[in-house]
Amino acid sequence: MTERFEKTVLITGANTGIGAATATELARRGARVYFACRNEAKTRPVMNEIAKQTGNDDLHFLELKLDDLESVKKCAAEFKAKQEPLHVLLLNAGLARVKGVTKQGFEMTFGVNHLGHFLLTVELEEVLKTSAPARVVTVASRAHERTSTPLALNHVKSSLTGVGWKEYQASKLANVLFTKELARRWAGSGVTSYALHPGVIASDIWRTTAWPLRTVAMWFMRTPEQGSTASLRCAVDPTLEGVSGKYYGEHGEERKASPLAEDEKAARELWDKSLEWVSPFRN
Known about the structure:
Blueprint: E1 8-12, H1 17-28, E2 32-37, H2 40-54, E3 59-63, H3 69-81, E4 88-91, H4 108-123, H5 125-130, E5 134-139, H6 165-185, E6 191-196, H7 211-218, H8 224-227, H9 229-236, E7 246-248, E8 254-255, H10 264-278
Parallel strand pairs: 1-2, 1-4, 2-3, 4-5, 5-6, 6-7
Antiparallel strand pairs: 7-8
Helix pairs in contact: 1-2, 3-4, 4-6, 6-10
């Protein structure tokens, strides 16, 4: 019998792919799940289907546009106004190979995959600490291992290439650095942090990839349900209680992050610079 998990969880990008699969399993275990997503009209049908599948209708929508820091600020404020605990913040939403900039002018992939999530986390810091033990789980990627250069913080307002892979790799490196620095800064608070590689998943993150390549690649990808394995372990596994700042593979096994992701100086610099960037949007 699946172990119950009757706690409060907020998942970004919970209406599709790994996020929806994770939300479904957590709902099945009895969690109250907040779906922090861009589009309510697209999210409500997913919530209704999950409620039907699991018998759990304790599912709630929050509007969150990670490419707009004002929206992130509003989402955090809306959740805090509910005066509820938050036991798991699951930073799942992400994009790849999308050109352009966020509303505040940051390179789109970095802005969505790292900076929007960073603001959401620090805005919910007090709630998380009050709810301890609590967890911040970040869906990163093995792609962070494939970048051979340190994070270029002076380039986050411009694209590095025309293809988008370097931007994606850099954003995933930022995810792991963020996880490790959160563990250091919030040590002893009862809030622990985890980063993970879900595997290569057949999900909407690849929606901007040319369809012939995408169609062929899908045959070799894991399903969202398979991809939720590591997210679920990091979110609920009692054996990870008190563990923080670690990186996990697609089967939930602890793995070693890349040497660049272990750079404590880079992690501190990323955190400090991120705080500076989001400071106009703090409540």
